[in-house]
């Protein structure tokens, strides 16, 4: 057996077991010192005195996450940090410090590195993150790895205000910020020669995680969230599994931009559900809490479905008649499958 037989998420489970870690089993936030959220969420969280520390990391690899020669280096710098900010946003926290590891071929032009860091600086200024160190190593292709540390606020009882993947309940509403599918469509247009100022291409190259919306959700008591990195349906599956629930997503409710509808009218729903790399936030909360969030959020927030009890414990996309829709087969022939780094057959639209 090799890693492609397990796939990315099967391998994560195996590695978690190897280090004696388990995925979160309950929405309990704990108290005092020690780990609150470990492997299996958007970021780790632990308590240190009166502070709740958050930590996450992500990597962009040339030829895997960005097409060689197509993505401007400044945009790569922005995106490398933004995808980590998205993880902190999905926990309801505030990003503070970043460590940058660069793996570069020796022949990389210095001008490219300067542009990369110009984009990093722009993103760090946008989200209030200080770059405080890192590492530089030699490699056959460019790899940009970022780790971000941040913190979560405490409520009036001294409990962490955290959004978690394992805190959904049947009947909770599902809502998503912004629009879906633009990044995957932007990657296609970029490969087809569209300019960097094309709105869909910009969505792919310069994602803007709605950090304030995540913080507001945590403040209002929204219990559950995830960011859309691997595709809406696959990411919702990461909610269904630990909660032992199903999810209903209404196709007609999906927030699709006019640019996406015009560019890919026949594929817009599929791109929205499986494309990935939108870095929008999915919130799952009681109906009244979701109403309060929609009234106070500074970004568009669309209710797209609800959690339910279902024996298959997976998200289901339904049409206006209530019939489940089958999207084109993705990885391993699974309809609607999103991104998995280690599967050998096929790839979703949102990644290289």
Question: Can you give a write-up of this model?
Answer:
The chain has 352 residues and is of the alpha+beta class. It has two domains: 3-152, 2-Layer Sandwich (60s Ribosomal Protein L30, Chain: A); 173-333, Phosphoribosyl-aminoimidazole Synthetase, Chain A, domain 2. It has ten helices and twelve strands. It has helices at 3-18, 73-90, 110-127, 182-191, 199-205, 211-220, 232-243, 258-263, 268-274, 287-296; strands at 34-37, 44-48, 51-61, 94-104, 130-138, 143-152, 173-177, 224-227, 246-250, 281-285, 301-308, 315-318. The strands form two sheets. The protein has a six-stranded mixed β-sheet. A six-stranded mixed β-sheet has the order 8-10-7-11-9-12. Strand 4, helix 3 and strand 5 form a beta-alpha-beta unit. Helix 4 (182-191) crosses helix 5 (199-205).
Give the topology, please:
Blueprint: H1 3-18, E1 34-37, E2 44-48, E3 51-61, H2 73-90, E4 94-104, H3 110-127, E5 130-138, E6 143-152, E7 173-177, H4 182-191, H5 199-205, H6 211-220, E8 224-227, H7 232-243, E9 246-250, H8 258-263, H9 268-274, E10 281-285, H10 287-296, E11 301-308, E12 315-318
Parallel strand pairs: 4-5, 9-12
Antiparallel strand pairs: 1-2, 2-3, 3-6, 4-6, 7-10, 7-11, 8-10, 9-11
Helix pairs in contact: 2-3, 2-6, 4-5, 6-10
């Amino acid at each position: 057996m090799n890693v492609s037989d397990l796939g990315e998420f099967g391998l994560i489970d195996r590695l978690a077991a190897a280090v004696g870690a388990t995925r979160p089993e309950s929405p309990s936030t704990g108290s005092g010192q020690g780990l609150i959220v470990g492997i299996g969420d958007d970021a780790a969280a632990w308590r240190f005195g009166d502070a709740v520390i958050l930590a996450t990391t992500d990597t962009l690899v040339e030829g895997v996450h960005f097409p060689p020669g197509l993505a401007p280096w400044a945009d790569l710098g922005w995106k490398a940090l933004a995808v980590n900010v998205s993880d902190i946003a999905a926990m309801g926290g505030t990003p503070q410090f970043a460590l940058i590891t660069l793996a570069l071929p020796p022949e990389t032009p210095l001008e490219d590195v300067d542009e990369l860091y110009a984009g990093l600086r722009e993103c760090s200024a946008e989200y209030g993150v200080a770059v405080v160190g890192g590492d530089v190593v030699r490699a056959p292709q460019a790899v940009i790895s970022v780790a971000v540390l941040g913190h979560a606020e405490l409520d009036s009882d001294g409990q962490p205000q955290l959004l978690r993947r394992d805190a959904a309940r049947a009947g909770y509403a599902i809502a998503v910020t912004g629009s879906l599918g633009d990044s995957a469509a932007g990657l296609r247009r970029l490969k087809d020669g569209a300019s960097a100022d094309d709105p869909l291409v910009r969505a792919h190259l310069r994602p803007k995680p709605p950090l304030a919306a995540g913080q507001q959700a945590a403040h209002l008591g929204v219990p559950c969230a995830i960011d859309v990195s691997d595709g809406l349906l696959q990411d919702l599956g990461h909610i269904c599994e630990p909660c032992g629930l199903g999810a209903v997503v209404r196709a007609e409710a999906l927030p699709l931009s006019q640019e996406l509808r015009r560019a890919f009218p026949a594929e817009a729903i599929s791109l929205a559900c499986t494309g990935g790399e939108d870095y929008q936030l999915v919130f799952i909360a009681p109906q009244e809490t979701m109403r309060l969030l929609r009234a106070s959020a500074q970004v568009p927030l669309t209710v797209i479905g609800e959690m339910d009890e279902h024996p298959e414990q997976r998200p289901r996309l339904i049409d206006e008649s209530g019939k489940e829709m089958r999207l084109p087969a993705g990885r391993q022939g699974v309809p609607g499958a999103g991104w998995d780094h280690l599967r050998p057959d096929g790839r979703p639209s949102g990644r290289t």
